[in-house]
Amino acid sequence: MPRGINPSENPFRYGALALDDAFADREAELRELVADVRNGQDVVIFAPRRYGKSSLIWRAAARLHRAKVLVAAVDLMTTPSKQKLAEKLAGAIYENIASPLERARERALAPFRGLRIQPVVNVDPIDGSLTFSFGLGRRPADIDATLERLLELPGELGAGRGRRVALVLDEFQEVVEIDPGLPKLMRAVFQAQPEVAHVYLGSKRHVMERIFNDENEPFWRSAKPIELGRIEARPFARFIAKRFADTGRAVDDATVAELLERTGGHPYATQELAYFLWEETPTGGTAGPEELERALAAVLRAEHAHFTLLWERSAKAQRLLLAALAREQPGRPFSADYRNEHGLPSAATMQKAARALVQREVLAADRGAHVIAEPFLAEWIRANIDRIA
Ligand SMILES: Nc1ncnc2c1ncn2[C@@H]1O[C@H](COP(=O)(O)OP(=O)(O)OP(=O)(O)O)[C@@H](O)[C@H]1O
Ligand SMILES: [Mg+2]
User: Fold this and answer.
1) Is the minimum distance from the CB of 18 to ligand 1 under 6 angstroms?
2) Using one digit for the tens of pLDDT, what is the confidence trace for 169-191?
3) I need a surface site. Which of 1, 2, 107, 187 has the fewest CB within 10 A?
């Protein structure tokens, strides 16, 4: 049994980052990402929610660390203002890019000497870690100047240490929410530092596409796109079987195949269903079709509140479309055949409904063919809505 594995503890995880043993495959994407960063190439990773963007970059960062690349990361979901962004950036620079010498506690401010606003250093009384704050009521121009300098710093500090630097900006679609002028300010700085690899991760496809694919936007074609898809069946199947085996259980091949068929290799959904399948399997037992059915029912119970809310937030035409797709997908809701078959309203109404659901990433569309992208939602509708209707 591999070290660190407890046979009585469920080895599947969904929600948190997939680290170490919890991380499956993605070898090709990892190799590409690591090589791009080592070349100083800017990269944008496109993927729907919960596909494993953050997990992938953490895995890549561990490899880059071994290759002596300095990696600083900021999650823009945690920085609702430019000031907060400056504070988190200062922390990430201090933690990951400043040299050990500059990191001596009494010299914590050394990397930030040239800033218009000097940060205040706060020491966490419990673990001794440092955070930085810039105080309240600053003039916007001073915040901008400070942020600009901070964005320049990774490149300068890396050059001083003779090391390649990567700056990772997770949940990058939030950049436009923080401040409409922020993309321009950022891009102006990044453009002047070709040696720094910037890695942008984001969901909300329509926002990310506007940022990177619209000619009028500052980030237009500024980074190499990498599409993160679902995880391939073969390596994912091996991963699931091994995690069962490592915890004193087994799962038959056909059941793993069926599980992956149900989730389509969606990383989060697969871990979730595997989690419940493992729960249904006693020590020394083998998971089969009956355990899988019970696991699926358990997933639907666990997600009931989430799906109920999603349903309540959907307008009537959206509900009709979802119910139709739960019966038959992929579906072409703009075609007369499909609409007649499923009793759907006009094509114009369907277009509006489909667009809204695609924007919410509940649906995915490919040239008019629509599928439900939200894992297990089709099963939930069949079990809870269609039965009542
Ligand atoms: N390589 C992987 N192997 C196994 N499971 C994975 C992998 N990547 C992601 N997962 C599963 O997907 C879940 C979500 O991963 P992660 O948080 O990295 O995705 P994300 O795309 O960053 O999501 P969000 O859009 O919420 O930020 C994890 O909790 C884990 O269950
Ligand atoms: Mg993430």
Assistant:
1) yes
2) 999 999 999 999 999 999 999 99
3) 2
Q: Looking at per-residue confidence, does 110 or 10 come out higher? A: 10
Q: Is the pLDDT of residue 353 over 70?
A: yes
User: Model pTM greater than 0.70?
Assistant: yes
The residue-averaged pLDDT of 234-245 equals 97
Beta-ladder partners of 43: 199, 224
At 203, the pLDDT band (50, 70, 90 cuts) reads: confident
Spatial distance between the Cα atoms of 212 and 193, rounded to a whole number of angstroms:
18
pLDDT of 111 reads 84
- Does 333 sit in the ligand 1 pocket, CB within 6 Å? no
Tokens 């930030």 map to which residue?
112
Other C-beta atoms closer than 10 Å to the C-beta of 217 total 17
Atom of ligand 1 nearest to the CA of 23: 3
52 lines ligand 1 (CB under 6 A): yes
On whether the CB atoms of residues 198 and 237 are closer than 8 A, the answer is no
Pocket test for ligand 1, best of 21, 33, 45, 50 (most atoms within 8 A of CB): 50
The predicted-structure confidence for 140-162, as pLDDT tens digits, reads as follows 889 999 999 999 999 999 999 99
Cβ-proximal residues to 225 (8 Å cutoff; 6+ apart), any chain:
43, 44, 45, 46, 212
Looking at residue 291, its amino acid is E
Q: Which residues pair with 286 in a beta bridge?
A: 250
CA 77 distance to own-chain centroid? 11
Helix (H, G, I), strand (E, B) or coil at 180: coil
Coil, strand or helix at 306: helix
Collect residues with CB below 5 Å from ion ligand 2: 54
Closest to 269 in 3D by CA, of 366, 170, 364, 379: 379
**Cβ atoms 204, 361 nearer than 8 A:** yes
- Domains of the chain, CATH where assigned: 26-227 (3.40.50.300), 233-302 (1.10.8), 309-384 (1.10.10.10)
Sheet strand arrangement including 224-227: 70-75, 165-170, 196-202, 43-46, 224-227
Q: Which pLDDT belongs to residue 213?
A: 93
